[in-house]
Amino acid sequence: MTIASSSPPSRLPLGDATGAGTDRRTARRAAAREERGDGRLAAVFIAPALLGFVVFLLWPTLRGVYLSFTRFNLLTPAEWVGLDNYVRMVHDPIFWDSMGVTVEYVLVNIGVQTVSALAIAVLLQRLTQSAVLRGIVLTPYLMSNVVAGIVWLWILDTQLGIGNEILAGLGLDRIPFLADETWAVPTIALINVWRHVGYTALLLFAGLMAIPNDMYEAAKVDGASEWRMFRRITMPLLRPVLAVVLIMTVIGSFQVFDTVAVTTAGGPANATNVLQFYIYGAAFGRFQFGYASAMSVALLVVLSAITVLQYRLTRAGQSDLG
Amino acid sequence: MAAVADTTTVRRVRRRITPGRAVAWAVMAAIVLITMLPFYWILRTALSSNDALAAHPGDLLPVGTTTGGFERALGLQSAEEAIAQGGSGGGLRFWRYLVNSVVVSTLITVCQIFFSAMAAYAFARLRWRGREAVFGLFLAGLMVPAIFTLLPNFVLVKQLGLVDNLLGVALPTMFMTPFAVFFLRQFFMNVPREVEEAALLDGAGKVRIFFRLMLPMASTPLLTLGLLTYITAWNDYFWPLMVSYSDSSRVLTVALAIFRAQTPQTGYDWSGLMAATLIAALPMLVLFGCFARRIVGSISFTGIK
């Protein structure tokens, strides 16, 4: 972040002789105020955010865990059933199936997105510093997943989509990208890469900007190739940034829902029934809020495990939380 | 782009075109093409008629040019006319959803940024008992995936009687997100102490310092965060899908998904669907166009760990 350099001129407490006494008194009063702390003022400043935090984040989190131990259909009060939902989940083949579909989606999405974002970020760093290109790359991020899903649904339409027209023009077979069990998940994963890769690339780019240019200059003098510089300078120095961006994108990726909802709605034959879509169906299709909550808790556990694991693997200790 | 000029040394070395650079530029061109082509395709399809689209799927220019798609999206066609042109006659009116989206996104952005800034200031610049503990709690909140709280929040909003109400759509993120508080706290922490001390000596109170000094100083991060928050709120689908049932609280993303689901017997109304898509996407493109210069350089990496 660049800080706007509009700081007012700093007034020294030791001004001219006449004003020095009052200034010092004011300073003492200010110091006394400091010592008492700003408890009452802080309470006022923190109140709205804290209210929102407790009511819409803390309480729902606890309630979500509680609901996972109940049978609840919204109409009658929740009824405690202990571990029933979890037992049912472990024996539910569709749950495991959708977990598998989700993992496949995450692997394709994160694999392609990370490599592409890294390539784009490095091109923006080493090839051109054009801000216009950075703006262009970010454009798909301004679309909703719903828009991205619908546009690509049209482009990839088997009969009329321009994507398949191009395939046909090249003399290849048309591919029913979103209607075929094999193609559907990778296709949705790539649609979401299209939407998110620019944002991820800019996060990595910000990390690359922290690498001093002299290092590349020096390596160039030594006759290093771009590829060698990438391996010996860029990758090692970018690793901590890459690790954090990876955690963020993996966690986001596991929560895929919108794109599936508007393109395939879980089909064909549950091939794209990602976990979040199955949870939504359980809650709002069959009113099994307890079971849906239990599956949400399972997802929460998986994501927490991934975060802890990632953190362990990359604990380089350069956290700036102080 | 002052922000970029600061961080990069401008070199005036004449670069020779090497094969490697030529390949790199070709890759860059391909990236730009894949990025931008779908936007052109939305426009081209929205301006075409469904009959012509079916006859000439591969034409690069609009075919059977008409504004019928937009008329259907905005609910300006009679049902008979819409069906005759390959629409569903479902009667969705995107003006209404556009207004709803603007209301919800504006409400969320203005309130969330303001309240988060207040909290961030209290965490960064005020001294009070329990500050670290409360901030730790907020940080823990970063760990909860947004999607986990949606079901319980739906139950809560239903109990509050705010389902199918614009306020209900805005509520969960209206007061804060842990990220916003964290992001702004980082900024306020970096403001030199002398600035605040000078103002205190001038007899300004902390409230005045916050409004007259801190907020103006934080204009760039506030703008960046505001834009990101607005885009996120505008593009949200899962939460509004849960809490809105009728036109009175339906936002663009939900309406688009319904439009896509209302498939006529004859096949998709691609022209109308793309017109609706354009209506949903254009405001963000315009907004970004206005502020891009200021924020592209400042989307920076804030290490969340």
Question: Using DSSP, what is the number of strands of chain A?
Answer: 2
Query: Unreliable segments of chain A (pLDDT under 50, ≥5 consecutive)?
Result: 1-20, 317-322
The most extensive interface between chains reads: A-B, 119 and 125 residues
Radius of gyration of chain B: 24 Å
Please summarize the sheet with the most strands of chain A: 2 strands, antiparallel
What integer is the average pLDDT of chain B?
86
Lateral strand order in the biggest sheet of chain A? 1-2
Provide the residue-averaged pLDDT of chain A.
86
How much helix is in the residues of chain B?
A: 55-70%
Largest sheet of chain B: none
Decide which structural class fits the backbone of chain A: mainly alpha
Oligomerization: heterodimer
Total helices of chain A: the number is 13
Globular, elongated, flat, extended or rod-shaped: what is the shape of chain B?
A: globular
Count of beta strands of chain B: 0
Short description:
The complex is a heterodimer of chains A (322) and B (305). Chain A has 322 residues and is an all-alpha fold.
List the helices and strands and how they pair.
The complex is a heterodimer of chains A (322) and B (305).
Chain A: H1 17-36, H2 39-67, E1 70-71, E2 79-80, H3 84-90, H4 93-126, H5 131-138, H6 145-155, H7 162-169, H8 184-208, H9 213-221, H10 226-254, H11 258-263, H12 275-285, H13 289-313
Antiparallel strand pairs in A: 1-2
Chain B: H1 2-7, H2 19-46, H3 50-55, H4 68-73, H5 79-84, H6 94-125, H7 131-142, H8 150-159, H9 166-170, H10 178-189, H11 193-201, H12 206-217, H13 219-235, H14 238-243, H15 252-261, H16 270-295
Structural summary, described in words:
The complex is a heterodimer of chains A (322) and B (305). Chain A contains 13 helices and 2 strands; from the N terminus they run ααββααααααααααα. Chain A is mainly α. In chain A, strands 1-2 form a two-stranded antiparallel ribbon. Chain A is flat, with a radius of gyration of 27 Å. Chain B has 305 residues and is mostly helical. In chain B, 67% of the residues lie in helices and 0% in strands. Chain B has 16 helices and no strands. Chain B is globular, with a radius of gyration of 24 Å. The model of chain B is unreliable at 1-12 and 300-305 (pLDDT under 50). At the A-B interface, helix 1, helix 2, helix 4, helix 5 and helix 6 of A face helix 1, helix 2, helix 6, helix 7 and helix 8 of B.
